[in-house]
Every structure is written in C-alpha cells, then in structure tokens.
Amino acid sequence: MKIKRIGVAAIALAAAGALTLAGCSSSNEPTAPAGDSTAIITTNGSEPQNPLIPTNTNETGGGKILDSIFAGLVYYDGEGAPHNDMAESIETDDAQTYTITIKDGQTFTNGEDVTAESFVKAWNYGAALDNAQLSSYFFDSIEGFSYDENVDELSGLEVVDDKTFTVTLKQPESDFPLRLGYSAFFPLPEAAWEDLDAFGENPIGNGPYMLDGEGAWKHNERIDLVVNEDYQGDRQAVNGGLSIIFYATQDAAYADLQGGNLDVLDAIPDSALSTFQDEFGDRSVTQGAAIFQSFVVPDRLAHFGGEEGKLRRAAISHAINREEVTDVIFSGTRTPAHDFTSPVIDGYSEDIPGSEVLEYDPELAKELWAEADAISPWEGSFQIGYNADGGHQGWVDAVTNQIKNELGIDASGAPYPTFAEFRTAITDRAIETGFRTGWQADYPSLSNFLGPIYVTGAGSNDGDYSNPEFDALINEGLSETEVEAGIEKFQQAQEILFEDLPAIPLWYSTVNGAWGEQVENVQFGWNSVPLYYEVTKSE
Amino acid sequence: MAGYIARRLLQAIPVLLGTTFLIYFMVFAMPGDPVVALFGDKTPPPQVLEAVRERYNLDQPFIVQYLLFLAGIFQGDFGVSFSGQPVSEILAETFPVTLRLAILAVLIEMVFGIAIGLVSGLRKGGIFDASFLVVSLILISLPVFVVAFVAQYVFGIQLGWFRTTVGPGAPIQDLILPAIVLATISFAQIVRLTRASVIDTGGQDFVRTAASKGLSRRRIVPVHILRNSLIPVVTYLAVDFGVLMVGATVTEGIFNVPGVGRTLYQAIIRGEGPTVVSFVTVMVLIYLVINLLVDLLYAVLDPRIRYAK
After folding, report:
1. Contacts of residue B152 in chain A, CB cutoff 8 Å?
2. Beta-carbon separation of A459 and B43 below 8 A
3. pTM, whole model, 2 decimals?
C-alpha cells in the first residue's frame, strides 16, 4: 500500500518563443460529487504562526488556510502541474518580461473585483523591506527589489490596465510562472489596506473557501471555512466547507481520527507509523513529498577543504547505508535519495551521472578515505549537528555509527537543545561540525531545490558552497524558455553537485495520511497538503 | 482581618516584579534567535531578519525590552503574539478553559478522595482500606501520560463514551475525561492524606470525650473527626488547584485542550517573550491569591487560628 508518485507533470507550453500557461482543460472538473455538498470536512492543522497575510506566512499552519481562501494567478494540481486560476494568460518572449492578464469577473468575497492592482499592490507591500514580511525574499528577482533600502514600489511591476500588468525580472527566469501559485504571490483586496492587522485576523480572499464570518479564526482552537460561491476557478469545492482544527500534538489528531471526530489527517504521529496502514487500509496513503533531507559538511572545516574534502565527503557518502536507515529507523516512511531534488518534481531523474556516490559501498569508502589520508592524515572526530527537539536523534546516531564502523573513525551526533539555537549557530556560521539540513519546496520546480541552496551567496547556502560552473548552469537553465532544455541544464548542474557534495543527500520525506470512512476522494497534493476541495463526505 | 489581607496583597507587588523580571530575563537568555527559527530550515537574507527583529523590538537591549513590556502592562497592554493576537485576548480565552478543567478535576479528586480516605481511616486495616491502599499505590506510580493515553484509547476510541479530544468551545462534557485523568494522580494522594489524618484525629482525646458524652457516631465523624482532619487535605487541594490552574501541559496536549498549558508550551517553543511572561505573571498572581485564600480558610476550619492584625 505504497503510492509513490513520480513527477509526470507537464507544464503546458505554447509554441516556441512564447511561454504561456494555458488554461486548464475541463477534464479536470470533478465528476458528479457522491457526497453531501453541504457537509463540512474536518481536518488537522496548527495555529498559524503569523497573521493570515499571504506575504507574511511561511509555515504550513497558515499556508494551508491561505491556499484554501485565496486564489493566485495559477494553482497546482495533485501532480504539481500549474494551471491558470485567476490568470487568463501569462506570456513572455524572453523569460524576463511577463505580461499577465487576469480573467474577467473574478471577485473577492467582499464583492471587489480582482484586478491587476490587487496583485501589484500586494506584491509591492510584500517586497518592501520596512514591512518586514517573512516572504519578502520571494520578490527579489523582480526589478527594483533591494535588500539595502526600502522600496515602496518595485520598478519591475507595471499596471497596464485594469486587468493587465507586466512583470520585469532582473534576469531571465523561466520558472517564474511556476512560482505564482505560492501564497506569497496571492492578491489582496483594497479593503486590506485600511487596516492590515485587522485584515490578518479576518482575511477576505478570492479562493474556493472563505472564512465563516467574523471571528471564524478561533485562536489556538480552530478555523471554520465555508464554500465561496463566487469562486469560478477549477478548484470548485464539492463539500460544504472546511474546519481546520489546531492540534498541539499529532497524537491527539490521530486519536480523533480513530474516534471518528476527524475526517482527514495529513500527518501520522511517529507512534502510529508502523500500524496506521493496517488500521486504515485503503483509507491511508504514503506518497512522496517535495522534501529533501541531507547534511552539510562545510569546506571551512579542517580536513574538508579542497581535494581532500571532496574525497572525504564521497567516502562518507559511500559509508552510509541509506536503505537500512530508512527501513529500520523510519519504517519505510523515507525513501533513499538519488539526487538533490525530489521525486515529485517534474524532471526528476534517478540516474544522473555521478549519483553512484550515493550507493552504499564500504570498500570504496575506505579506499577514498585512505586517499584523503594520504593528502593529510585525519585526526579528531566527525560530528553531525542537529536540533534535539525535532526527532532527529535516531537517524543521526544510526548514520554516524555507520560512518564510524565503515571508516574506522570516531563519529557521533552533536545535539542542540532547540531548533532556534541550532539554526542560529548555522546562520552565524558558528557551527564547527557537519549539520543536518532539509529543504521543502515552495513551488514545484527543480531549480527551487538547487538555486537557493547551492548558488554562490544564495540565502540558504549554509555551507558557503561556491562553484562558478554550477552557478552558470543554473543561470542558463533559468534563461531557457523551453522547460525541457531548462531541466537538462539543471541536471547537468546536479552532476557538479555529485562531484563536490556541498550537501550529502540522505533521503526524501513522504507524506503519510489517513481518513475516515465517511469521506472519499482524498488526494494529497505535490506539497503534501490534501486537495480539500475534492473531498466528498456522506452523512 | 482586612489589614492582614492588605498586607498580603502589598507583599505581592515585589514578588510579581521579581518574577516577571526573572522570567523575562530567562526567555531573553534562551539560546537561539526566535526570528531565525521563524524561517525553518531556510535562511533568509540578513536584511529581512533585521527588519523582522525591529518589528518585535527584538533588536533592543534586554533592559529596554523589559521596560517596554512593563510599561505596556501598566497600560493594560500585554503585547502581541507573533500571530498578531493581543496577549490579553489569549489570556482571556485560555484561562477560563483551564479554570473549568481545574475545578472539575479538583471536585472529582476532592469528593472521591476524601470519602474513600475517610472510610479507609475509620476502618483501618480492613479489606476496604487494604484494597484502596493497593489502588492508590498503583495510581501514584503511573505517569500521567500513560493514564491519559489509556483513558483516551479505552473510553474515547474503543467504547466511545467520551469525545477523544476536546471539541469546539471546550464544553464541560468533553472536559470530564481529561479532568478524571488529572484527578487520578492527586486522588490517590488525597486518599492517603485523609486516611492518615483521620486515624490521627480519631485517636485524639476530644474524640474519646465526645464518644463518652454519648454523642452518636453520625455526629462525631463529620463534626469532630472529619473537620479537624481536613487542614492538611485542604492545603494539598489548594496547592493542587494552583498547579492545575497554571496548566497541565501533558494532559492538555493529549486531549487537545485549548488551555493555559498547551498555549504556554507553544509560546515557549516559539520564543514569544511577551506571551510567556504575561502567562507567568497571571500564574504568579493566581498562586498568590490561592495561597491567601488557603490561609484564610484555615481560620474557618480551626478557630484557634486567627489573623488578629
């Protein structure tokens, strides 16, 4: 009972030269719903960390709600393929200047029209440094964006008419349209600007659902959503609404599912991972998620620079038996990595040249380690830093034990008590060991797994990796207007990563979910969130 | 009496100031930057970090942050959580829930604990006494999360007598199961305490005197034995009520009770200084008030105790 989805999503592309995201075909329309169209689906969530403002939400608790109550220019289907939602068309000739037209007759739930202004104002607000929005960096490729001074209006955004605006990027980026389904790019109604704090409490959106009146967000308890009858996009809800209940622990949510108080659960607690498939049978799912796990051994550590470092990283990678750890420690809820991205992403490949370095081969590991020792003899101990509050100890101990046994060196985990402490040490470059890293894609694109992490000087380049060849390939890939050509460049860029191992890939996460007898048509999206609008419930 | 109360309340002021300062300092000194943690495994540009820090005054030195917080409190402003909700509102939402839960739990443990403890004490060494000795020993030795998980599984999932977790608005009927779980631990203590106290009082001269005066047992037991045995039990109950009021983090987590313990736990994890300190401030207040009430209650139970000045 394991469904692993390999990315088969194809981006709809018009003839060469013009990159257009065509509107979705009507075949996507749900068939006549079997369930009660007034039934409310209950599901698990967590208290949003921030006010419900799209540009200030970067975690799943709030993201799940925003995706339901807002509609962006595009949305992603279950496979991660983008389809137009608010957009009539997104056109470009050079992957640098995009002309975006919005469909007629789209409204916010307060009756306001969705216009070009709705997007441009929201993006300008999100990008301005003074507004301290958590997702501001999503706009950094738009012309005019600056990290050094506050910019109220991005020069790259221009309203042409009521329904049309243009976006000019600093450089060609062919996957820009792919990003537009991410919550940071959602529009905001005029009403939001009167009092944004109040708006964040009772947001007015344009998506398939809307808040069930003022105060529908009962803090720390739940949020109640009802169907937005005025929504005209493809994500038409076939149920009557959505109640997202905030749980402090996944165990409590699982108990509620067992007790029949919860319809859909998208996270199985560790304690039930080995039993939930027996208990829920075909009402459960395990499928790939767009989450990549690895650990970084920075160049700056002693014995890990230059040629010696390359050899040692490769040796360590060969010393790890990924199959065994994913089976024993994670009961198969992780799948061994074959690249630096995720199997759910379009263009994913298991056989990129160089990926052999991820194979368990103790003999080769010893050999490579000995070669490195010939350059400069190893001393000291090898450590992997991790945050002790995130359930990482099990695999870190297993992996470091394997390294210790295969390479005959001293290796161990280096726990930090809290996540905040761990991330601060990494951000300040104060960490003097290897350290675990993870990346969850914000939008379904190969480049999202590569650019922000390994390009010289990139935001999340925590290991300070730098390779001009790699940077060039990423740039070339982004300027390709043909998706296939872009993918080819990104895969070539990955070949370089396999040689340098700026991060040592471990495995991909899977999403584990289950649902009750009363609901049907539960499908999990590329980002591991169920497509709630498709769920039917009989009562 | 009034003077005594006034003096106790005045004493509370330095206690409050001291505790808020200490707690604020501890939250501030917690290693790790909460703003960095807001971004998960991703590292935002340093300028974005700086802008977010400024927004929550987190770029100010400790003493400035503390004074800003204190100034706010005196204006009735407890600050704002990361999610933009006024902390005063969070307080107003979570404390009533925990209060209901605590009252229920204390009622359950009080009624059953004192009754069983009294019978055990009066029939010392009998079958009833011996069997409840075993039961209470078992309950004392069980960790609360074991009791909670078992109760949730048996009564919530298998038998379906109770909702597995607490539903919308935290109604009383949903709180009964978590309250029973919370009560079990203290229940055992109260049984032991009441029993010992009843045996002790039962051997006192005034009880023998009452019996030799020809008073009926129905009068001796409640008025002479029970009332005089209650002082240690009341102290224990009050302390327990205080503990429950400041949140039963584990139990609230398992039953998803939107109360103080669960909320405070999340605030600590997120490093939300204002929320943590405001909660603790209110908790200290509750503790002080409950302690005062207990001291006053002693006088009612035992007329020899009087607060003259």
Report:
1. 255
2. yes
3. 0.81
Q: Which residues of A touch B32 (CB under 8 A)?
A: 416, 418-424
Task: Measure CB to CB from residue A129 to each of B38, B51, B255 and give the nearest one.
Answer: B51
Classified as helix, coil or strand, A374 is helix
**Where are chain B's structural domains?**
32-77, 87-301
Separation CA A58–CA A99 (nearest Å) = 27
> What's the longest Cα–Cα distance across chain B?
86
Q: How far apart are CA A236 and CA A220, in angstroms?
A: 28
Asked if B36 reaches chain A (Cβ–Cβ under 8 Å), the answer is yes
Which residues in A479-490 are b (16+ Cβ under 10 Å) and which e? bbbebeebbbbb
Nearest-Cα distance to chain A for B60, in Å, is 16
Domains and CATH numbers, chain A: 41-263+516-537 (3.40.190.10), 290-510 (3.10.105.10)
DSSP string spanning A310-356?
Answer: HHHHHHHHHH--HHHHHHHTTTTSEEE-SSSS-TTSTT--S--TTGG
Q: What is the pLDDT along chain A (539 residues), one digit of tens a residue?
A: 333 333 333 333 333 333 333 333 333 444 444 567 789 999 999 888 888 999 988 888 899 999 999 999 999 988 888 999 999 999 998 889 999 999 999 999 999 999 999 999 999 999 998 888 888 888 989 999 988 888 899 999 999 999 999 999 998 888 899 899 999 999 999 999 999 988 999 999 999 999 998 889 988 889 999 999 999 999 999 999 999 999 888 888 999 999 888 999 998 888 888 889 899 999 999 888 899 999 999 999 989 988 899 999 999 999 999 999 998 888 888 899 999 999 988 889 998 999 999 999 999 999 999 999 999 899 889 999 998 877 788 899 999 999 999 999 999 999 998 888 888 888 888 899 999 998 888 888 898 999 889 998 887 888 899 999 999 999 899 888 888 888 999 999 999 999 999 999 999 988 899 999 999 999 998 888 999 999 998 86
Token pair 């042409």 is at which residue? Answer: A160
Contact A130 B255 (CB under 8 A): no
Q: Which helix (H) or strand (E) element contains residue A225? A: strand A222-227
* C-alpha distance from B286 to closest chain A C-alpha (Å): 22
CB A177 within 8 A of CB A90: yes
CATH 2.40.50.140 fits B87-301, yes or no: no
Best mutation site among B81, B83, B150 for testing chain A: the one with the most A CBs within 10 Å? B83
B34 part of contact set with chain A, CB < 8 Å:
yes
Choose the mutation target among B48, B155, B275 for the interface with A, i.e. most A CBs under 10 Å. Answer: B48
